């Protein structure tokens, strides 16, 4: 194609309102400068009669504010220059007909049939099988780290149901293509009776399959008569446990076999079940290990140049997502250095006001900002990779291999199954670069972020695409503890990267732009936020009781920059949140979760990192979530916070909440009564009183859960007792 006729396959939209954002950022910086001026000019060192505590508290305030400023600066760097992309799929179709399109391998990872029910897993698998893409070019691989015959049975059933489901999706242009989600959201069509009939038949066979699988899942094992139906079940004769078994690999639909067709005679995508070998003496490296086994096995079977990977709870909600991603890779001018196209992580089961927070702002503003700074991080799911980049190739203009050169003569997949099993064995990776230079990286709690960094550090670019119609929908944890534990794991892994040789400033020095190296800090430094936040939650209220002022008088000039920063910063956050579709109550919930995460998850993340650095290794705080039951789900849907367990995290939350409450009460009874001029007290302590009131307001659900609720989600009495004691002791210490 001559360059004259070149039309790009994608474009970028200018960010709306970014002038406003920049003015906001600059003005806040100016106000912050005034705050530091005040902190230095009024440092209590100069007055001889000040008690030493006051000096130290002042230093603490100064350091906390310094930290907040640093973090604010990083946030501004991330959001300064966002990029919003869109694609021209019609141009892609015009340039590439079905024959010319590249192959795409899709990896779905599941780990445990008890936590991830097989019916959910196959809904995801069916949703990606039904992509609007030539089926002979698609191969779907399910990695089952649970090594469960229940999952295998479900997939076998799904491969049969696909023969009905795929033609149905084509004919009715079904969206979303996950049968579970589709039948949940779409009522039976009323108009066309032939259509309605077909709809009913398909729904019936889906329900039958689903209840069959559910029955057997409940039973816990596959009955003998079903086992006889497929020779694949024989493999489970050699499985002693999920941690000790040989590789199990079955090609359930072989795309090269002319008999693999749906009921309309059209080809079906290849479908492979893989459970890699597990042995107690070998480390399995969690999801990264599963991903690397899949990369190797798929290279032997289909070797597609592009790989989509999704979590098993994340179904496709947009059947054009693959074509969208290819618009970036196949762009003749700008596609050669793109390693991956990341889609946002969005959730199907958020409640209206997102009681445990969401990743809304991250997905709508921060990742586009990453994109503008050099490329989004890889977030582990909903991402289309270029195979060579994932496999460890360094980017260079000359070496860039055309994907067309990767043509692969496909042998009948069933005939090479034995070779593939060797590729998925434990010993295969011994003394190789897998997990180090090749494939997904091992040794991190956030192996996805680390893998993304290493790809970018090898000179590749990445792209973030957030199409109007959400590409993937996953699940969020539905209890507070699960949410906090999840964030603890993330914050811990990210801080670990920051403290390791993989820190972007070292590792990405050569190939990542400085602003991208800096952008990663917004996540890598999640955990250290806890120090400054804890300080602000505890010390101002403590000093309020002690009678030490920490902020300027409301009536004096210096209060203006403080007021400006506090007010404008929060208004910006609210506008940003509502702008990307949130509700006002959702924003309040987000603020609460912001506080909860910073005072618990991040604190434990820091402690674990310190223990690890001291080689005390294993995490001292084992905090486990619990299996959600009916009550828990009901409370989640009603947006009632679920505590329920006695976790050290809740003790911290309740202690801080109660301490602020006590401070406020003590202030009301003692200080105001003593000082006959209440206004004067407010003038001196205005900021501290307001902060204390805000904290009490944000913590309202905690008081409710500790003292007024009767249901199973209340704070356990032991936690309430312990927290009250701590909070009372702290208050007493302050007053006397
Ligand atoms: C969220 O997921 C849970 C567990 O899968 C489910 O029971 C619940 O109904 C979902 N909630 C919403 C609001 O979709
Ligand atoms: C998922 O897809 C459906 C059907 O196309 C669409 O109506 C819906 O808005 C999508 N969901 C989200 C969260 O975007």
Automatic annotation (TrEMBL):
PANTHER family: X-BOX TRANSCRIPTION FACTOR-RELATED. It comes from Hibiscus sabdariffa (roselle). Keywords: Cell wall biogenesis/degradation, Glycosyltransferase, Membrane, Transferase, Transmembrane, Transmembrane helix. Its main location: membrane. The chain crosses the membrane at residues 19-38, 58-78, 518-538, 602-623, 643-669, 681-703, 715-735. It is found in: Endomembrane system. It comes from the Eukaryota. This is Cellulose synthase-like protein E6.
